[in-house]
Specification:
Layout: H1 3-10, E1 16-20, H2 29-38, E2 43-49, H3 51-58, E3 62-70, H4 79-86, E4 92-95, H5 98-110, E5 114-117, H6 124-127, E6 132-135, E7 142-147, E8 151-161, E9 167-168, H7 176-180, E10 183-193, H8 196-201, E11 206-208, E12 215-218, H9 236-245, H10 249-261, H11 266-273, H12 275-287
Parallel strand pairs: 1-2, 1-8, 2-3, 3-4, 8-10, 10-12
Antiparallel strand pairs: 5-7, 6-7, 8-9, 9-11
Length: about 290
């Protein structure tokens, strides 16, 4: 499928949606931009947020947040988030630790209503979450119960997949394993589509099997302006452009018009960035090995 076909078919107004990433690493940006392009609204978002969530907030698509982190890392606090929260566009924010939200996905994957952990106790993260404290019936000690988190749809970007959806990730896998098993619908975007025989050569790398996947999208440079480990570096210039543009509503709209609304699809976006710049990012990553 194309991004447009997958998003149109599986993402809908008001859905509970999650993006899987680690900072700007392996972020499903081609899918994220398509969600903006199609104007899906009143989204309830789970996971962690950097550039991808910033775009959704800036476009006015987010209603509720169930997250571990939102920010622009070395570039500071998100202006788009501040405006969305202060204006009342975002109605609620529920906080979790990185481990906490992963365990919530794990509980859903296991088919249990909650999972007991020792994390988050005594913290403000617990205070502003929906977790509960109970006494362990075996030890008498306090344990934290994290409710299972079941998404309507998840977006995950991978290094490679076959046409059936068998997907492999190189390097850090984040919480792709857990999220892929905790959603009703799963859209996979992949840097490359390979034949099934290639997938079978390294079965240990297949974190997501085909039977979990509802759509497979071929998206080279699909994490841009974020990075893809072993493939290309992150585009610092492009990230800085967004940081500066997002400081004002006018700058934000101009950025969205140029890089999302002004292009029809991911291929046109890549053409706008330019092949020379993309190859520079690939060379930067190769130079780090």
């Amino acid at each position: 499928m194309t991004e447009a076909e997958a998003v149109s078919r599986f993402v809908y107004d008001g859905c509970y949606i999650g993006t899987e990433l680690y900072g700007t690493v392996r972020c499903p940006m081609s899918l994220v931009r398509e969600v903006v392009r199609q104007g899906k609204k009143d989204l309830r978002v789970a996971g962690q947020g950097v550039t991808e969530l910033d775009l959704w907030l800036a476009a006015g698509l987010v209603k509720k947040l169930d997250v571990t982190y939102i920010g622009l890392e070395v570039y500071g606090v998100s202006s788009a988030l501040r405006r969305a929260v202060e204006s009342g566009q975002v109605e609620s924010v529920v906080e979790w630790s990185n481990g906490g939200i992963t365990w919530r996905f794990k509980a859903a994957a296991m088919g249990v209503p909650f999972i007991p952990v020792r994390a988050m106790l005594g913290s403000d993260t617990f205070k502003y979450s929906a977790a509960k404290v109970v006494e362990c019936p075996f030890t008498g000690r306090k344990v934290c119960l994290l409710p299972a988190l079941i998404l309507d749809v998840a977006l995950i970007h991978v290094h490679r997949a076959d046409k059936y959806g068998n997907a492999q990730i190189d390097g850090i896998s984040g919480f792709a394993f857990e999220m892929s098993r905790a959603c009703k619908r799963l859209i996979i975007s992949a840097e490359e589509i390979v034949n099934t025989e290639e997938i079978r050569r390294y079965p240990d790398r297949t974190i997501i099997p085909y039977y979990l996947v509802d759509a497979v999208v071929h998206a080279p440079f699909g994490s841009h302006p974020g990075e893809m480990v072993y493939c290309y570096a992150r585009d610092e210039g492009q990230l800085r452009e967004w940081v500066e543009a997002s400081k004002t509503e006018e700058g934000t709209q101009a950025y969205l018009d140029k890089y999302i609304y002004g292009v029809a699809n991911h291929q046109e976006y890549l053409e706008l960035i330019g092949s020379e710049r993309l190859e520079q990012l690939r060379a930067e990553e190769e130079g780090r090995r």
